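Friendly challenge for the regulars: who can give me the structure tokens for this chain first? No prize, just bragging rights.
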Amino acid sequence: MASQLPIIGDWYNDLAMGQIFEVVAIDDQASTIEIQYVDGGLSEYDYESWGQLAIGPAEAPEDASAGYEMSQEDSYLGDEIMVPNSGTDPLGSIEPESFADFDDF
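First reply, four minutes later:
Bragging rights claimed.
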């Protein structure tokens, strides 16, 4: 039985199913615990069901972001600033119209 309180970001091993999962959200108003398996699958338990699970703590998998379909390269956000080439800006060649008067009667 799950005597552990769920903590967002912690990994657990469902001993009955043989799967590890991460707690991704806890909704106190709805009394639910949302989890995500390593393969990306999502599930939800109510507080009563959580208490009846046979779970234990687990280490995060080597590539914990695999369920989010992100590779190690995708998860890195560098310090590079992307600036578009000013010569290829199609709006840069459009000249604004000049208005002599605001009333076109």
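The first strand starts at residue 11 and ends at 14. Helices lie at 47-52, 72-75. Your move, everyone else.
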